[in-house]
Each structure stands twice: as C-alpha cells, then as structure tokens.
Amino acid sequence: MKIALVGIGKIARDQHVPSIAASPDWELAATCSRAGRVDGVPAYTDLDEMLTAHPDIKVVSMCMPPVPRFEFARKAIAAGRHVMLEKPPGATLSECHALEDLARKAGVSLFATWHSRDGARVSAARDWLADKEITKTHITWREDVRKWHPGQDWVFDPGGMGVFDPGINALSVMTKILPAPVHLLSAELEFPANRQTPIAAQLQFTGSTTADFDWRQEGPQTWDVEVWTNAGKLHLTHGGEHMTVDDQEAGDDPAVVGEYPSLYAQMAELVATGGADMDLSPLRHVADAFMLGKRVQVDAFEW
After folding, report:
1. Cα 126–chain centre separation
2. Which residue numbers are catalytic?
3. pTM score > 0.90 for this model?
C-alpha cells in the first residue's frame, strides 16, 4: 500500500522512514512537511496539495507535534484516507474523540499508536501478571531532554506535554501490563521557572502504583517498571526490552521485530480488516495529572 508521512522531523527520520522502507506492506509515496523531506520521495508543504496530487495514497501517517495534528488528520479523514497517529494521538482528549467520530462516519481506519507497548517483553509481562495478585507497582522513567529533543522548544510549550512526552510511554506500558485499571490520586509537577510544561513529575495512582518521571537525567537513561506480586517481583527494563522475575531472566525470547515495524504491521492489518484502534487510556492519565497536579517551580531550563 502507498503511504504518506506528514511531519519529517527527528522521529520520522529515525523510526518511521526506516520502518516503512523495511516493510513488505508499504511504499512511501509522498511526504508533507514545512522543512524536512526524504530523498527520492515527492515532497509537499501543503497537505491539500499532496492529497489532491496522490489519490492513490490511501494511508497517511501523522508524525508532527500534537498541537497542529488535529487539522491535518481531519483533512486526511475527510479525503477518505486511513490515518495513523504518532503518540500522543492528540493534544487533547476531546480532539481525539472528535477524530474517532469522523473516522467512523467516513469508514476509514484510525490508529492511535503507542510504540512502547511493542517493546520486546511487554506482552510477556502482561501475560505473566494476568493471574497474579499485585501488591505494589513503581515506574521510573528518566531521560535527557537534550538528547531526545535537542533545541525543540515546542516540547515545553502549551500542548507539548513536557516530561509527559516520554512519560506517556511509561503509562502506555502500565496500561497494557496491569491486569486491573488504575486511576490517578495525586501528582506533583515540577515546572522550570521559564517554561510552560513540567520537566519532572511524581504520580500516585490507586492500586499502590507510583511513577517518577524526570527529563533531566544525563548519562544512562532509565526506563523501568517494577511490579511486586504474590508470586515474586517482575522487573521490566530498557523500556520493556528486558524482563526478570526475582532477578532471573524471564519471558520468551521474541522474534526481533522492533517497536515501529510492529506498529506499521498493525496498521496494515487494521486497513485490511477495516478496523480501528483508539485506546486513549495513557493520554487520559496525563490529562488527570494536569488536572490534579500540584505545581512546583524549579530552576529555569535552557538548552
């Protein structure tokens, strides 16, 4: 199938473009971006122009930041195209629900992707926890914003989500592996004095579940989920790539697919079957954190 990418930034170049190139399901037939482009692929700066010029492109993958994404996705759906959404699927829950309604009425597939759910052993963790009694869960998700979003001020602008840009990855894993849903009780959000979104967050959920997010960690990065149960302690590390139970390696050794290649395989299946997948539970937790969170001002942040 022919597919178009909208938004050729770092994540598109690092993940989307190579995943499409390696897939037997897809052909990258056009791009739309203010500046970025892919060699050898027709490039546009206007979405309407791209859609008109390529009626044979049936799928559009949205890779731009969340704030401007709704209008682009709305236009693609109105043009009868299937739409794939980079995480988070939108800047607000309301616009995500609106897109879902529009896609249903247009009869097209819509996919809210959560790439961290496709970490190598995330499914194995879900399966192991399915029949366990959970006593406590703790998530530690600490990254260096300068490494992953160098100079990208939009992550600290309203709608950019700040530390929840990576933190929502942790929440996507949490909502996949825990056998019973949890909801937020309280949050403490650390805002740099010169920024509009938090650089760190501490979250308390029901079910004795806690999370520690920080965007100031230099050196090795930390993406850990620890779950204590009546049958031992499960520990996911490296964003779900490794799993132990009571410090012993666990989980089947999966075939190497990769997070983004798996997402594109799922999108191909959704289009083939006429399905849609708009699980918004990770974004709902982020919205709750902004509603309940206590604001704490910390030192100004500069690149």
Report:
1. 18
2. 87
3. yes
